[in-house]
Input
Amino acid sequence: MKKVRLGKSGLLVSEVGFGGIPIIPLPHERAVEIVRHCHERGVTFFDTANMYGNSEKMIGAALETVRDTVVLATKTTRRDKAGAAKHIELSLQNLRTDHIDLYQFHHVSKSEEIEEILSPNGAMAAVQEAMQAGKIGHVGVTSHKIEAALEACRTGLFATLQFPFNFIETDALKELFGVARGLDMGIIAMKPLGGGLLQDAALCFKFLQQHPDVVPIPGISRKEEIDQILSFYENPQPLNESEQQQIETIRAELGQKFCHRCGYCQPCEQGVAITDVLMFRSSVRRLAPAVAVLFSKNAMATVEKCTQCGECVKRCPYDLAIPELLLEVKGIYDAVSR
Ligand code: SF4
Ligand code: SF4
Output
C-alpha cells in the first residue's frame, strides 16, 4: 500500500489507517484477528484512545510482535498534567510498547481546554516529559469543532490534526485543512463513512482519494470491511458524473438530518444533551446496539426536558429541526433498547 507522510511528524503511514472504536464490543480473540488481518493487508497506522474500552489492549496484543512495522496513535481526554501522565503510562502498558508514535489530545472543543492543556500544570507538560523520556514520538490534536481545531493548529505545537471528514462533512475544506497544511501538519480523517451513516463505501473512499494527503482511519469490525476498502485503493478510480450526482443527492437528503457535532446549539437551558442524543443515529450503526444504548443512556434521559423553545434551532448553522430530530432519534433509541 502507498505510504503518506504525516506532516512534520515525518511518520510514514499506510494511505488507509485503522480506527479503533468498532472493535470495542468484540471478543478479545476476534478483535486481535481483525487487527492482525489489517496489518497483513498492509495497514500500518493504528489509531485508538484511552477511552475506547479495551481497544488499546486488543491492538497491543495483536501488534506486539510486529511493533517495529507499525505507527501507533492513541489519545487522552485529560487536560491536566497528572491525569495525562497516568493515561500515558496506561496506554504504554495496554499497547504493550515502550513508545507511542503519536499521542493526541482527544476531542478538544473549546479555547479553555487548549489553555488548560498548555498551562504549566496542563497535559502538554506531561506529554513533553514523556517525549523527553522517549515514550512519545509526536503530539497531535483531535477535534470536532472548526474554531477549536483552528486555534489548536495555530499554536504551532501539534504535528497532526484529526478531524471528521467525508463527503457530507466537508467543513474542514473551507479553511482548516489549508491552515493545517500551511503548518505542515499531518491530517487524519476520522469518520470517513460519516460515523456509519454513509452506506456506500465506494463513494466515500473515491471522494477521499481526491485528498491524498488526508489519511482516513475507518473503523473496522470485520475482515471483509478492510478488504473492500483496500480494493478501492488497489485500483483507484475517479468519481464519475453519476457518482458525483449520487453524492449530491445523499448530501441533500442527509443534510436535513445530519448533525455535524459542531456544538453551536449548546448549551440548552433545559439541559438537553443535543449533540450526544443526535449522535446516536450514527453510533447505533457503528457499534453493537447494546453498546450504543449504554453510551447514550444518560443523554437520552434529557430529551424529555425539551420544551420545544427553538433557541437551539436559531443557533444551528445547518438549520436542523432539532426538537423534531431529538424525538425521532429517541424513537430509534427506544426501539433498539426494547
Ligand atoms: S428546543 Fe429543546 S433542545 Fe432546543 S434549546 Fe429549546 S429546550 Fe433545548
Ligand atoms: S444540531 Fe446543529 S448546531 Fe447542534 S451540533 Fe448538530 S449541527 Fe451543530
Observations:
- Residues 85 and 127 are 7 Å apart (CA to CA).
- The pocket of iron/sulfur cluster (ligand 2) is lined by residues 259-265, 274-275, 278, 315-316, 318, 320, 322 (CB under 6 Å).
